[in-house]
Amino acid sequence: MTIVPDTKNWTWVLERECPECGFDSGAITLGDVPGLVRENAAAWLAVLARPGVGDRPDASTWSDLEYAAHVRDVFRIFRGRLELMLAEDDPAFPNWDQDATALENHYSEQDPATVSGELTEAAEKVALAFEAVPAGAGQRTGRRGDGSSFTVESLACYFIHDPVHHLHDVRG
Q1: CATH number at residue 146
Q2: CA separation for the pair 17, 25 (Å, rounded)
Q3: 13 inside domain
Q4: Strand pairing category for 149-151 and 141-143
Q5: Is the Cβ–Cβ distance between 139 and 89 less than 8 Å?
Q6: CB neighbours (10 Å) of residue 76?
Q7: Is residue 15 part of a domain?
Q8: Is the dihedral of CA 20, 71, 132, 145 positive or negative?
Q9: Which stretches make up the DinB-like domain (predicted)?
Q10: What is the tens place of the pLDDT at every residue in 151-161?
Q11: DSSP state at residue 57
């Protein structure tokens, strides 16, 4: 079964509510993100304990396990991006192909208990990183390879949509 790569530019979630999951980035601040990360990570534990967690619902949709492995890696990637923004002036982020990562790391074959532990650890690390953003650093900038520019604050609001949206995907 092959997943069609997601090539959409999701930065629009910074401007309006997501019609699929209902997330509204305009309703949160940088200070809200650590709590939202921890809440999201806790919910994934029950998802990963489900029977059939590795079964895909259809040929074009990731299994709950694959979504969870992706969310774990989103936590890791965005912690790295945040750290880069705080260490350098307007850095360019290394490109990340989430679909290639899913294939290369065999998301569908990973152990749910291992993913659960790793997701929890990655969530806590990114939550702590956002909590540790120094006062006045929220407007530091960074850029993706496609030219999308973020401040630390907008990166936080953009980032948290991804795990929230994917939790909606597996609940929906």
Answers
A1: 1.20.120.450
A2: 7
A3: no
A4: antiparallel
A5: no
A6: 18
A7: no
A8: negative
A9: 38-168
A10: 999 999 999 99
A11: S
Domain range for 165: 29-49+62-170
Q: CA-to-CA distance for 107 and 69, rounded, in angstroms?
A: 6
C-alpha dist (Å) from residue 132 to 59, 83, 140? 41, 10, 14
Looking at residue 60, what is its pLDDT? Answer: 84
Residue pair 69/105 in contact by the 8 Å Cβ criterion: yes
| Count of structural domains within the chain | 1
Selection from 113, 101, 1 nearest residue 47 by Cα: 113
Q: What is the DSSP letter of 7?
A: -
Encode 93-141 in three state secondary structure: CCCCCHHHHHHHCCHHHCCHHHHHHHHHHHHHHHHHHHHCCCCCCCCCE
Q: Whole-model pTM?
A: 0.93
Q: Confirm whether 149 is domain-assigned.
A: yes
- End-to-end Cα spacing for the chain: 21
- pLDDT category, 107, cuts 50, 70, 90? very high
In a 10 Å sphere around its CB, with 0-12 CB exposed, 13-18 middle and 19+ buried, how is residue 59 labelled? Answer: exposed
Does any domain span residue 22? no
- What is the Cβ-side half-sphere exposure of residue 31, based on CA atoms within 13 angstroms? 2
